């Protein structure tokens, strides 16, 4: 009788281990896919006047910049610089939103990483909880 109970308990443990391992394997596979999707993120934005197009990668880094030839008709370099900066910043903000959407299923909602992506607050990312 005790031997049967031991076998049943062992089978239960084996079944639970198989279930946990299956969950781990699925999570590992999902994380591999997530890593590829994160690395592939590219967001392009166009300026309001349609003369500047900026594309940024997953870290918000500028990976492409296109200037319409019409932009050179106006010799206001400061305005051009402001337009480029604003367009790149918009693309970077949209990229952070896309990264947050991808990460939300893998991190707790109150995690520092998600708060950083949402609010661009480095203290959330670095875990500064000693403020008060």
TrEMBL record:
Q: Which residues form a coiled coil?
A: 17-44
Entry keyword set: Coiled coil
A Pfam family (short name) is YbaB_DNA_bd
InterPro entries recorded: YbaB-like_sf, YbaB/EbfC
Identify this protein by name.
YbaB/EbfC family nucleoid-associated protein
């Amino acid at each position: 009788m005790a031997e049967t109970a031991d076998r049943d308990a062992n089978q239960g443990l084996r079944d639970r281990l198989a279930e946990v391992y299956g969950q781990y394997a699925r999570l590992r596979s999902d994380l591999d896919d997530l890593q590829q999707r994160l690395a592939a993120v590219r967001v392009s934005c166009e300026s309001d006047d349609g003369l500047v197009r900026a594309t940024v990668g997953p870290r918000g880094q500028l990976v492409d910049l296109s200037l319409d030839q019409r932009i050179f008709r106006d010799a206001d370099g400061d305005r051009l610089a402001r337009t480029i900066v604003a367009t790149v910043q918009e693309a970077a903000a949209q990229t952070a939103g896309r990264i947050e959407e991808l990460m939300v299923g893998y991190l707790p909602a109150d995690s520092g990483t998600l708060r950083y992506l949402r609010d661009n607050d480095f203290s959330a990312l670095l875990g500064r909880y000693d403020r008060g």
